[in-house]
Amino acid sequence: MSRLNTLSLGPRTHEGAPARHLSPELQLRRSVLACLLWESQFYEDGVEISGRIAELVPKVAPEKVAALAVEARQQMNLRHAPLLLVREMARHATHRRLVADTLATVIQRADELAEFVAIYWKDGRVPLSGQVKKGLAAAFPKFDEYQLAKYDRGGPIKLRDVLFLCHAKPRDAAQAGVWKKLIWGRMATPDTWEVALSSGADKREAWQRLLAENKLGALALLRNLRNMKEAGVEEDLVLSALRSMKTQRVLPFRFLAAARYAPQWEEALEHAMLACVASQEKLPGKTIVLVDVSGSMTAPLSRRSEMQRTDAAYGLAVLLREIGEKVAVFSFSNALAEVPARRGFALRDAIDASQPHGATYLGKAVEELNQNEPCDRLIVITDEQAHDTVPAPCGKGYVLNVASYKNGVGYGKWTHIDGWSESVVDYIRMLETT
């Protein structure tokens, strides 16, 4: 017979530090808001993370789950995690009444129509629920012919299949005509970079035409800078596109990753990254930013990505440096290290070179700052894995969590914020002004 009279140490991080027991709602938030769904991370695989999300949904009030799905899509710019939340809501009678409205809200790209059905059928093909059909039917009319043609890809579930499944109603005769072309595969071929490059056209000419005609969105531009460089695209065209790009929905780490492979355009990339915060109100007083540079932070964001979790952390540090009246930046791993007072990409380089990427002694770093660096607020950017106990901050304390691990250390007297979007800065400002 097994023993029951044993010492329980309570929840622990993967590194063994004490972690606080969280309510199902808080567990769900930390599992979702920094999650690239089904992507394995340094300490957990993607299947474990998605399984935890599914397990937590019925334990959280339906209104809270619906609001989290919308927040994940609209504020954190996540795509698959909010779709999974809605799929799990559809499984439970307590949550189903909110499925249609939530699904219609979180679907913001045409390919997400088919992606949601794929998630719905991941564990076996079953009939779509009535609320799911209503949500898909409400979302379908959002998209014009260009958007439908752009994302009508060759997967097992086509957009026409979704249309047949949900019985959406067109807004007018013109949209009905577009849907007929979708059904019969007769939509005009969209002029996208994927189509242009796959048609066999000269790559340099194709890129230059797309740039001159403003046919590249911000993400497509950033992701393809290296390809443009290799194709010999005229530098003036690239610089003009970078200077005029719309950055509202681009996360900071995208610019850092682009600059890594296209350093000759770093100045324009830096300008674009900082432009979105230039008019923001400053955080008053002294802010200390403490950045995790331990080994787990150097893991890739996804299996196909060359971007690392440090890119997300450094991007947030760069933005926080810009919006503070007085800002000091430190890093922690095996030790606490002060980072030179630099801005933009120079700050990224200084953080990365500040010390070896080793262990996670967050508690020791916070204790040293508490003793030697008085401040109005301490902002820690981390994946919340630590070897030691983390003390309370001496002033306002914030933990910006950039990972979705089950247990973390940023609780108690700390304000805990999940995700790596620049909207976390707005959240801090809101907390301090209300």
Note the topology.
Elements: H1 24-32, H2 46-56, H3 62-74, H4 80-89, H5 99-106, H6 111-120, H7 130-139, H8 145-151, H9 159-166, H10 173-184, H11 193-198, H12 203-212, H13 218-223, H14 225-231, H15 235-244, H16 252-261, H17 266-275, E1 283-292, H18 309-323, E2 324-332, E3 336-338, H19 344-352, H20 362-372, E4 377-382, E5 396-401, E6 415-418, H21 423-433
Parallel strand pairs: 1-2, 1-4, 4-5, 5-6
Antiparallel strand pairs: 2-3
Short summary:
The chain has 434 residues and is α/β, with parallel strands linked by helices. The chain has 21 helices and six strands.
Task: Please give a structural write-up.
The protein is α/β, with parallel strands linked by helices. It has 3 domains: about 120 residues; about 80 residues, no CATH class; about 150 residues, Rossmann fold (3-Layer(aba) Sandwich), CATH 3.40.50.410. Helix content is about 45%, strand content about 10%. It is built from 21 helices and 6 strands. Strands 3-2-1-4-5-6 form a 6-stranded mixed beta sheet. α5 packs parallel to α7, α7 packs across α9 and α16 packs across α18. The longest helix has 15 residues. The radius of gyration is 23 Å and the shape is globular.
